[in-house]
Specification:
The protein has helices spanning 4-7, 16-20, 23-28, 47-53, 57-60, 65-69, 79-88; strands at 32-36, 42-45, 92-97, 107-113, 119-125. It is α+β, with helices and mostly antiparallel strands and 126 residues long. The chain has one domain (24-125): PAS domain (Beta-Lactamase, 2-Layer Sandwich). A 5-stranded antiparallel β-sheet has the order 2-1-5-4-3. The protein is globular.
């Protein structure tokens, strides 16, 4: 039996657990999760993030996160950390952010390096 859904919590740094989740488990997590490739294209987008953002999962997959979907994240605080992670090959950073599209609530973002070359953004409403 796969127990990743009960074991993975916001703030965890073991992203290998996310790779092992079934689509149902991934979509059952209570916080938003986005997986980006090296160019910033969305590879995975869970149900919680879809409900929060109002963007359907099938609408965001393959699109550029920073340019097309969330240009308000093209800032030093958000995109800068992503670029820093690309340069270093790793990142494990948490910070508070306000998506200007919504103006509130403030969210906590946990940016992590995924196994391989991708990156995870965990997004939790505060």
């Amino acid at each position: 039996m796969n127990t990743t859904i009960t074991a993975f919590r916001f703030g965890d740094s073991d992203t290998e657990q996310l790779d092992l989740m079934s689509p149902i488990e991934f979509d059952s997590l209570s916080f938003g999760i986005i997986r980006l490739d090296l160019e910033g294209r969305v590879l995975a987008y869970n149900r919680a993030e879809s409900l929060y953002s109002g963007m359907r999962q099938q609408h965001v997959i393959g699109r550029d996160w920073f340019r097309d979907l969330a240009p308000c994240t093209n800032t030093a605080k958000f995109y800068g950390k992503f670029k820093e992670g690309l340069a270093k090959g790793t990142v494990d950073s948490q910070f508070d952010y306000v998506f200007t599209r919504f103006s509130e609530p403030i969210v906590r973002v946990h940016m992590l390096k995924a196994p391989g070359e991708d990156f995870w953004f965990l997004i939790n409403r505060l």
